[in-house]
Amino acid sequence: MHEMSLCESILDILEQQAGLQQYQLVKVVWLEIGALSCVEPAAMRFCFDVVMEGSLASKARLEIINIEGRAWCAQCAKDVVIEQRYDACPVCENYQLQINNGEQMRIKELEVE
Ligand SMILES: [Zn+2]
């Protein structure tokens, strides 16, 4: 489950930022998860609670913002929505799509104290 190590990196960032931005407690973490990022939101929630235990974010709430997967289809000359990385274009079924959104997983915002 790579969500565990992703949560560990999130905790690293939270701890680094705590020093820089002078906060002691993290209350809410807004996390953007792209549909094509291979990150499972349910697994993320589970790991988040496990990893944050005993840290400055032990009581933090995790808010997940789902970002849809989008790709450019050169054949249709259109931006299309796809659900998975290797999906075909929903319009023309061409497989040569250039993904342009939905691969990211990042902290969008924090509420701290
Ligand atoms: Zn197409």
Note down, in words, how this protein is organized:
The chain has 2 helices and 6 strands; from the N terminus they run αβαβββββ. Helix content is 27%, strand content 35%. The strands form 2 sheets. It has a 3-stranded mixed sheet with strand order 2-1-6, covered by helices on one side. It is elongated, with a radius of gyration of 17 Å. It has helices at residues 3-21, 41-52; strands spanning 26-34, 61-67, 69-73, 78-82, 97-101, 105-112. 21% of the residues are buried. With 113 residues, the chain is α+β, with helices and mostly antiparallel strands.
Sum this structure up briefly:
This protein is of the alpha+beta class and 113 residues long. It contains 2 helices and 6 strands. The radius of gyration is 17 Å and the shape is elongated.
